[in-house]
Design brief:
The protein is of the alpha+beta class and 222 residues long. The protein folds into two domains: 46 residues, no CATH class; 137 residues, Immunoglobulin-like (Sandwich). It has a five-stranded antiparallel sheet, with helices on one face. β9 and β10 form a beta hairpin. The chain is elongated, with a radius of gyration of 24 Å. The chain binds calcium ion (CA) (2 copies). One calcium ion binds next to loops.
């Protein structure tokens, strides 16, 4: 079995793209200084390696509606990502999305409702995670607009107390690696249940009657 040496940010991308093949390697993750030996046949990540996902509650949102995003930051390393100087996560919403509320399971969250962005600062234990939830409203944008963005992660890939490494959130619902999370703006009628007029109700009754007649005709043929 061969050893495979990767820098932390490349490993994050490789783990997402090729989890199976990489699990069969002896992985040695090198930061800024010498690392302990890897676990034979497994994956050993010593210094912090923080990856993130950002998932929308719905792939479509009506004009004037709102969408909830769930952001999960995971530290795949063994060492704690300490609360270093500066933000560990920043999310700037695209034009057309207005920040309404935000919360985090740990750390310090600083939302900007005028700038429609949020900043998170805090530590993540080795193997641990933090979940950030935000709700955003859709402003005056044309139907069909694709609202797309990614959060930025800042972490201490060499474990020396400063965040020199970065990564971007991935949309976990798509096969692509480290891709932006997209939400499409649709008319109200696509999301809401349609209401039927008198003619619509009559047509619906005719459809039901036609279906019943077909079932009855089949039973008669047996
Ligand atoms: Ca910090
Ligand atoms: Ca560092």
């Amino acid at each position: 079995m061969s050893d495979l040496t990767l820098r932390p940010h490349l490993l994050a991308m490789a783990l997402l793209a090729f989890p199976g093949p990489l699990a069969a390697q002896n992985l040695v993750v090198k930061g800024g200084f010498e690392q302990p030996s890897p676990v034979p046949g497994g994956i050993s990540i010593v210094t912090p390696l923080v990856t993130g996902t950002k998932q929308a509650g719905s792939s479509v949102v009506p004009v004037g509606g709102s969408v909830t995003y769930t952001i999960i930051l995971r530290n795949l390393g063994q060492q704690t990502q300490t609360d270093n100087p500066g933000d560990e996560f920043v999310d700037v919403l695209p034009g057309g999305l207005l920040l309404q509320s935000a919360s985090a399971t740990s750390g310090t969250l600083t939302p900007s409702f005028t700038g429609d962005s949020l900043h998170w600062s805090g530590s993540i234990p080795g193997g641990g995670m933090v979940t950030i939830t935000l709700q955003a409203g859709v402003g005056a944008v044309p139907v069909g607009t694709s609202l797309s963005n990614q959060g930025s992660i800042f972490f201490d890939g060499d474990g020396n107390g400063t965040n020199e490494s970065t990564s971007s959130t991935d949309d976990p619902t798509t096969p692509a690696v480290s891709d932006a999370t997209r939400v499409r703006v649709v008319p109200d009628s696509i999301v809401e249940m349609p209401t039927l007029s008198g003619w619509g109700l009559a047509a619906f009754a005719l459809l039901l009657a036609a279906g019943a007649w077909r079932v009855f005709a089949r039973m008669q043929c047996r």
